[in-house]
Each structure stands twice: as structure tokens, then as C-alpha cells.
């Protein structure tokens, strides 16, 4: 039987109910994380839960947990559901209260919910690449927070699906920001370009791993905004996230990127990523040093 985490309890799926007036439900007033499980082990758990605590802090949500406390909770869920390869989703809302935009006073207890999913690495698309489409970034100005408010992201992804693409790469005006649920990169003349970490993008953990791998391989990693035209004319394009890893984009808006094949720098990063999964401690993330 599949268990779901509700606050500190592991309950059966059909008993996993939340209050109708939970602020996550009425306002999207909450935050979340998605952590990968490889070989029965949480991947880059510490930076993920550090980011969750940061997101909580940025929206003024009081969460009385430590990184290790959260890891323990989620670990229990993974064991209970016997997840070998897959992922775990965890969200925290500001709690249940009569509907009023302002924070509840006195404050109410945050609600935590978590569930798991079992699946393999996306080998086929990692090998062949995916299609992407560009779309205007209509999201708010705090995209650095992994917030439950995902309507902009949802509409972007749906637009991609409509045009037979697997990801939408967003841009504000001419400047490329990120994918609907991934970070985006253009590779040109041997260097990797990606939007700098600020309020306009989510600071991806996979992005941090890619940066480390690039540095190890002496591939320049330039955190500079670039234009949609630059993206279209890139030699290689990738998008990255916890679930899609280092994903090549071989076709953008119906046109081939480069020669339409997965390029050598992408392959190098993918090799490095597989190595990192097999031996996580090989490249300590900045947050873990
Ligand atoms: C989660 C997310 C990412 C990728 O972050 P990872 O930590 O690599 O999974 C990128 N962009 C958005 C908008 C996201 O929500």
C-alpha cells in the first residue's frame, strides 16, 4: 500500500486528506521541493532541503524543522514505499485558516504533505534529446522561491505540449530566463551560457551540479543572460532539473539546434552527471563544503 506523508504521519493514500481551507489550496500559499532517489538514496538531499527552508523564510512561513529533520521524515516515506529509483515531492503550506489574504493571526500550524513516485532515469530522451518551444515568461518577480503558485509555469508547459514539445523555454522580452520546470542553457563556441542566479530564475540544484562538472572539465560556465536569438543559434541547448537531469534540446520552435544531434559538450556533462550519481561525494556541492 502506498503511503503519503501528512505532517509527521505516514498514512494510506485514501486517508491522505487535507482541510478545504488550507492556504495552499485557496492561495497557493506554500512552497515545495522535489528530490530524486537513485539506488534507494536521496540525491543531493541537503541542498534541496536547505532551499526548502530558504523558500519558507522568503515567504515568512515559520517551519520548525532542520534540514536533517526533514531528510529523516522523507527518508521514512521512501523506505515505506520501497522507492529504489524515483522521486519524492514535499510541500509545506501556511496552514488551514478562514480565507483572508493576510497571514492568519495568531499563526496556524504549517501543513506538510509528501508523496513518492517510482521511475527510472529518462534514458531514451537523454540519448536522443527533446523538442522545446520558446514562450514569454509571464510569471511573478520572485521566481527564486519554489512556490506552489505555478500557474505561469503550468500555462507555459501546456503551450509546449500543444506544439509537440517537451519543454517551454521562457524569456522576458528578449532575455531567456529558464524552462517551465527546468533551467536552460545555450552552448556556443565551447562555452556554456545560463541566466545568472537572481529573482528571475530558480536556483536549480541540478544547475549547481552542472556548474561543478563544467568547472572540473574546464568548460567555461558563463552566468550571463542571453537572447532568444542567441539560443536559436546555439551549437547545443540543454535544460536541466531533478527529474530530467542534463536534457539535450535538439529542436527549438520546429527548427534543429546545430546539426539536430546531441552535441559533445552535452555528452560530457551527461557523463559527468552519471558519474556524480554513482559517486555523489565525488564533487561536493558548494552548499555541502
Ligand atoms: C525546480 C525547478 C527547476 C530545477 O531545479 P532542480 O533543483 O534542478 O530540480 C528549475 N526551474 C523551475 C521553475 C523549477 O521549479
TrEMBL record:
Similarity comment: Belongs to the class-IV pyridoxal-phosphate-dependent aminotransferase family.
Gene (name only): dat
- Enumerate the UniProt keywords alphabetically: Aminotransferase, Pyridoxal phosphate, Transferase
Which reactions fall under this protein's catalytic activity?
D-alanine + 2-oxoglutarate = D-glutamate + pyruvate
Q: Which cofactors are reported in the record for this sequence?
A: pyridoxal 5'-phosphate
A Gene Ontology biological process noted in the UniProt record is: D-amino acid metabolic process
Q: What is its EC number?
A: 2.6.1.21
Which molecular function terms from Gene Ontology are attached? D-alanine-2-oxoglutarate aminotransferase activity; pyridoxal phosphate binding
Give the UniProt entry's GO cellular component terms: cytosol
**What's this protein's function?**
Acts on the D-isomers of alanine, leucine, aspartate, glutamate, aminobutyrate, norvaline and asparagine. The enzyme transfers an amino group from a substrate D-amino acid to the pyridoxal phosphate cofactor to form pyridoxamine and an alpha-keto acid in the first half-reaction. The second half-reaction is the reverse of the first, transferring the amino group from the pyridoxamine to a second alpha-keto acid to form the product D-amino acid via a ping-pong mechanism. This is an important process in the formation of D-alanine and D-glutamate, which are essential bacterial cell wall components.
Assembly behavior: Homodimer.
The first-level EC class reads transferase
Annotated Pfam families: Aminotran_4 (PF01063)
Protein name (database record): D-alanine aminotransferase
Q: Which CDD domains match?
A: D-AAT_like
Q: Which domain of life is it from?
A: Bacteria
Amino acid at each position: 500500500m502506498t503511503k503519503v506523508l501528512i505532517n509527521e504521519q505516514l498514512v494510506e493514500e485514501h486517508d491522505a486528506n487535507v482541510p478545504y481551507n488550507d492556504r495552499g489550496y485557496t492561495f497557493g500559499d506554500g512552497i515545495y521541493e522535489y528530490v530524486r532517489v537513485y539506488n534507494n538514496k536521496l540525491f543531493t538531499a541537503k541542498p534541496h532541503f536547505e532551499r526548502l527552508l530558504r523558500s519558507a523564510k522568503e515567504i515568512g512561513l515559520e517551519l520548525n524543522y532542520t534540514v536533517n529533520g526533514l531528510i529523516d521524515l522523507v527518508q521514512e516515506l521512501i523506505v515505506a514505499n520501497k522507492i529504489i529509483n524515483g522521486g519524492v515531492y514535499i510541500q509545506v503550506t501556511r496552514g488551514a485558516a478562514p480565507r483572508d489574504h493576510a497571514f492568519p493571526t495568531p499563526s496556524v500550524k504549517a501543513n506538510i504533505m509528501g508523496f513518492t513516485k517510482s521511475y527510472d532515469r529518462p534514458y531514451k530522451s537523454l540519448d536522443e534529446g527533446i523538442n522545446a518551444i520558446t514562450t514569454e515568461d509571464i510569471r511573478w518577480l520572485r521566481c527564486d522561491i519554489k512556490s506552489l503558485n505555478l500557474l505561469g509555469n503550468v500555462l507555459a508547459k501546456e503551450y509546449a505540449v500543444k506544439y509537440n514539445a517537451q519543454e517551454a523555454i521562457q524569456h522576458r522580452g528578449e532575455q531567456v530566463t529558464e524552462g517551465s520546470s527546468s533551467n536552460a542553457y545555450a552552448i556556443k563556441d565551447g562555452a556554456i551560457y545560463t541566466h545568472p542566479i537572481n529573482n528571475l530564475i530558480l536556483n536549480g540544484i541540478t544547475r549547481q551540479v552542472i556548474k561543478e562538472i563544467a568547472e572540473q572539465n574546464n568548460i567555461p560556465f558563463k552566468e550571463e543572460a542571453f537572447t532568444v536569438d542567441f539560443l536559436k543559434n546555439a551549437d547545443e541547448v540543454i535544460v536541466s532539473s531533478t527529474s530530467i537531469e542534463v536534457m539535450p534540446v535538439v529542436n527549438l520552435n520546429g527548427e534543429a539546434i546545430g546539426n539536430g544531434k546531441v552535441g559533445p559538450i552535452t555528452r560530457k556533462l551527461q557523463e559527468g552527471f552519471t558519474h556524480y550519481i554513482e559517486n555523489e561525494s565525488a564533487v561536493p556541492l558548494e552548499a555541502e563544503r
